[in-house]
Write a structure and sequence with these properties.
The protein is of the alpha/beta class. Helices cover about 30% and strands about 30% of the residues. It has 4 domains: about 45 residues; about 110 residues, Immunoglobulin-like (Sandwich), CATH 2.60.40; about 40 residues, no CATH class; about 150 residues, Rossmann fold. Strands 2, 5, 6, 8, 9 and 10 form a 6-stranded mixed beta sheet that branches.
């Protein structure tokens, strides 16, 4: 019964009753009531449709745009009105798609006047990272009476938007050790044997005679030992577990928090001058620059290979003295991860497993993460767990 008693049907019924009463009684007052109600009903039906006519969407800046998740962004999407009369209380919805997820962002503009171009993107915030595409722009209005709600789907501009993950601040628990670097890329210096002279000092009993600088000894009148500098670099290889369904695209899930934690680990390493190698896919080249890393993390989607082939690849490329960070969610299977990390343990590198938790971690998820942490520590791997 309530489904049939809508506001529009009630007004049409009242108009019909007043019209019949006016024709039967020939009363001017009843005629006036009918005309007033008829005009109000007509305005309530017609004005919402008229207010949405003669509108177009215009894009000021073309190409891909980048923003940070959770922050307000100006998309420069403008609604242009050509009709001479204004439109009131227009609800504007923009629908965005990334992988299998769709996000509908809405806002209400009180007045859109002729010649004015309100910006749709001033209050837009994307709660999760991703590479979004605008697929629909819809307008609706029920002004002034809300009897009907007119809808209008507009031709959409071609917009692709990259939302970067918000890096979680990380304080790296391990010292930044130096590994040998024969190529000399991004090197730091330490004392050792090479062909580049570092310093001279007096000879001490028991040291190798081969390190004596005879020319400097002749000038000094005593035996002098020569110290050389050896090329080395601080290296960190990062393997990231890319979230899968249902965690993919859920901003509060532990899977998406893994991406934010990985971004924080990379920023902490680059801030300390570390030579960085990030592995998101087993067969792709490792990423080394900050901009490329954050863009790849923003667009990362699960592949068929998964995490463990990437760890096996890192085990084959890692040298002694390097550090490896494996960033996983608390739901990662402990037994498979321990078996996969055993290949790294024999390489002489230091392994740190970073465990991410969701923003609203339920007690079962927390218990699973604690179980994973205990299993890794019992296997001899260092861990740290970062809550958002």
């Amino acid at each position: 019964m309530e489904r049939w008693l809508s506001k529009s049907r009630v007004l049409l019924g009242l108009c019909g009753v007043l019209l019949i009463a006016a024709l039967n009684r020939q009363d001017p007052m009843v005629y006036g009531m009918f005309l007033f109600l008829a005009v109000v009903s007509l305005l309530g039906f017609v004005l919402p449709w008229l207010s949405l006519r003669s509108m177009t969407v215009r894009l000021e800046s073309a190409g891909d745009m980048e923003f940070m998740e959770g922050t307000g962004c100006n998309l420069n999407i403008l609604v242009e009105r050509k009709a001479p009369w204004p439109a009131f209380m227009v609800a504007i919805e923009t629908e965005w798609e990334w992988v299998s997820h769709r996000i509908v962002l809405s806002q209400t503009v009180p007045v859109i006047r002729a010649g004015r171009t309100p910006d749709l993107g001033r209050l837009v915030q994307f709660p999760c990272r991703g590479h979004y595409e605008l697929i629909a722009v819809r307008l609706s209005s029920g002004f002034p009476l809300g009897l009907v709600r007119a809808h209008h789907t507009m031709s959409r501009p071609q917009i692709h938007l990259r939302v970067l993950p918000h890096a979680q601040p990380v304080r790296w628990p391990l010292p930044w050790d130096v590994a040998e670097d024969p190529l000399g890329e991004l090197t730091t210096r330490r004392m050792g044997q090479s062909f580049e002279l570092g310093m001279l000092r007096p000879y001490q009993h028991g040291e190798s005679v081969g390190r004596v600088s005879w020319r400097a000894s002749a000038r000094a009148g005593e035996l002098v030992i020569q110290h050389f500098q050896q090329s080395g670099s601080v290296r960190l290889r990062v393997v990231v577990e890319v979230p899968r369904e249902p965690s993919l695209g859920d901003p509060d899930s532990a899977g998406e928090q893994t991406i934010r934690l990985a971004a924080g680990v990379c920023d902490a390493a680059l801030g300390n001058g570390v030579q960085l190698f990030v592995y998101l896919e087993p067969n792709a080249a490792p990423l080394r620059e900050r901009a490329a890393i954050h863009r790849a993390l923003a667009e990362a989607v699960p592949s068929g290979a998964g995490l463990f082939p990437a760890i096996a690849r890192v085990a084959g490329e890692t040298a002694a003295g390097e550090q490896v960070a494996v960033v996983v969610s608390g739901s990662c299977p402990a037994d498979e991860l321990v078996v996969s990390l055993s290949g790294l343990a024999s390489q002489g590198c230091r392994v740190m497993v970073c465990i991410a938790l969701g923003r609203r971690a339920a007690s079962p998820d927390m218990a699973q993460a604690r179980t994973l942490q205990r299993a890794l520590e019992q296997a001899g791997f260092a861990t740290f767990m970062e809550a958002p």
